[in-house]
Every structure is written in structure tokens, then in C-alpha cells.
Design goal:
single chain, three-stranded antiparallel sheet
Length: 357
Amino acid sequence: MPPTGPSWVPLFHEKEERGHPPRARHVAAATTQVKILVPGHQPMVALLGQQDAFLKLIEAAFASDILVRGNEITITGPAREAEQLARLFEELLALLEKGHQLSDSSVGQTIELIKGNDGDEVGSIRPSEVLGDTLLTARGTSVAPKTIGQKRFVDAMRSSTVTFAIGPAGTGKTYLAVATAVRALQDREVSRLILTRPAVEAGERLGFLPGTLYEKIDPYMRPLYDALFEMTGGDSLARLMEKGTVEVAPLAFMRGRTLNDAFIILDEAQNTTPEQMKMFLTRLGFGSKAVVNGDATQVDLPNGQSSGLRVVEEILTDIDGLAFVHLGGKDVVRHEIVQHIVEAYSRFGQQQLGVDG
């Protein structure tokens, strides 16, 4: 019987360091050799890819030599990198054991997680636990966190009554919140989903737009519709909305309501005033969960109004059931250039604060 469970390690590491002669050949000074024996029940093509496509990605990301013979992988290189590569293959095998089909994307993300995070961050959350945490299978595609920050966000949503996710565009705040909400609905943990966001331009400009009220607010709600459509499909979404199981509405429509047995998502929360934020949070009823998403650096409120998202963490301290998750440039999962843009703006903002201070 093959080993089972999320934490098994099907590897046998044989280090042959300087001063300890290897069995077959001498290893260059200051290098380490690690041998990995892949379990016989796991086909090498699943691990290395068709025509070694995954292996080529790995070789391009590391300087160490990787030799594959049968079901044995030998890594020769600097000690630290050899250990990283051994851990990389461990994590890829753990993903395969969980039934995850490897792809260029998942292999690349595992490489980034192994190389880009050191110390306690990697030790506390393994890449296989991140990428293998499937929230939902939507239209044939698995939805799962792709970074350690996203994994912490998902875990917080599961364990907390109210979760705040604060971070830049592209970090998956809305996408993962909607996936978690749809999964909760499927598992009958809640009986309805409510998605809301402030219509910042409500008022004079909204009045000049043509059409009914719902046609006027539709552009503000479109990102939420798009995420729901991707998770449920057009026909299913239409039925759910017709029955009232799924509701998408501007924040102003939440006033005066008590929302029981619901999963409620407030998106673009940086565009709420402190009063609106309080109003939203006090709508929460029995059996409900809320997720509040926003980017505190992208406030569009007029006339210098304060953002409710910027002050809420100072107000809501030491309250059980509340969680704050901060996402950053490393959690951006759009085009790589977006991550660089986000990080550049963050550095610029910090420099400006230093100048102003």
C-alpha cells in the first residue's frame, strides 16, 4: 500500500558532503549531493512532465545539476540550493498524492514559493498545502490559493466570523472570497450569498446615467457578477439570483437589514466611510459570515472623506472572531509585471511618507 495522508514524505535523502566520500564518485568541494527515490506507484511523467517539460522549468530556475535515472533523481549543487530542490520535489510529489495534476503554472508557483520564502514562513505552510487546498472546482478548473498570503486569507475566512483582507489589486481578494462563499453555499453552511460594494459615484453623476436604477448601478457591480459567473456559470447564476439565493447590491441597500444565515462580501471597502463600515458590520445576523476586501492605497472617496477601511483595524482590536489579513506584492497573481508595479508603488509611497515626515 502506498503511503497516504497530506504530510507523508516519499523521499530518501542521501547527503554526501565534503569530507564524506560518496559511493560512486567524488563530489566537488562545497557541494552537496541529494538522492531522491520516487515511489514506484508514481509515474515519472506526472512528476517531470511530457518530454520533461516540468523538469526543464526546474532546471532553468536552479543552478544545480539534476540527473534522472529510472525512478531516482540525483541533485548536485550548493548545499542550500540542493535542499531547496529536494523540498521542491517533495512538494510536487505531495501534490500528486493529493490528486493534483501538475501544470506549468503549478510547478512555477511551487518554485516561487520554495525560492521566495524562507525560514518560518515556509516551515509553517508547505507549498503543497497552499496549491493543494482546492476551494472549488468551477467549470472544470480548480480554484485554490496560489501564495502563502492567499492561503492565510482562505484559512482566516474558514475560521473567523468576520475577515478583513487588505491588499493591492491582483491579490485574489474578491476571487477567493467569492469561491469560499460559493463553496459554503454548496456545503449548506449558509443559505444565501450577498455581495455588495459602495457605488462611489452615487449621487449627481449616477442620476445623469440613462436607464433604471439597477441599470445605473450595474457597472459598479460588474466585477462581482464576473466572479460569480466564473464560479457558477451563467444559467446557474441566473437561477440563483431569481430565487434570491444570490444577491448583488450596492452598499446603500444594506441599511436597516439583519442578514441571517448568509455569507456576505463587502468589496472595494476602502471606498466606505467609517459610518458606512459600521453600518455594514452591524448587519451581521445569526449563522452568518462576512468578508471585507479593500486596498487602502486606492481610496476614491470625494472631498477628502476618511476611509472606513483605514481606521477599522484601529477600532476593532482584541475581538474574538475577527481576523485581519494583509496581502502584498508577493501575493499578486496576475501578469508578473503587475507584481513589479505594485511593489514599485509601495516603495514610492514609503519614500513619500519619509519625505513628508
